[in-house]
Amino acid sequence: MLTAGGDPECVVVDSRSTECWDQGHIPGAVHLPTALIPDQAGDLPDKSVPVVTYCWWPGCNGATRAALALAELGAPRAAP
Predict the structure, then answer these.
(1) Is the sign of the CA dihedral 16, 75, 61, 12 positive or negative?
(2) pLDDT in tens, 22-56
(3) Backbone angles phi, psi at 52, to 5 degrees
(4) Could you tell me the residue range of the domain that residue 40 belongs to?
(5) How many separate domains does the chain show?
(6) How many Cβ atoms from other residues are within 10 Å of residue 39's Cβ?
(7) What pTM value is reported for the model?
């Protein structure tokens, strides 16, 4: 997600499986399943901006688990 000036305002992370990602996702989101965060979090495009995670719906705790994993690895202001 970009600001009016073109700078990233946040990184949106889809924490769902590849099968779910393939069914549809937020345009501009980064696909990073929760299980892969320890190995691939360093590949996020901009480590200086907040990270917003999402999964299927409010009853799904995948986004919360992903935000916690990212925060533990030092992501700034990671939140579901």
Answers:
(1) negative
(2) 999 999 899 999 999 999 988 887 778 888 899 88
(3) -115, 125
(4) 32-80
(5) 1
(6) 9
(7) 0.81
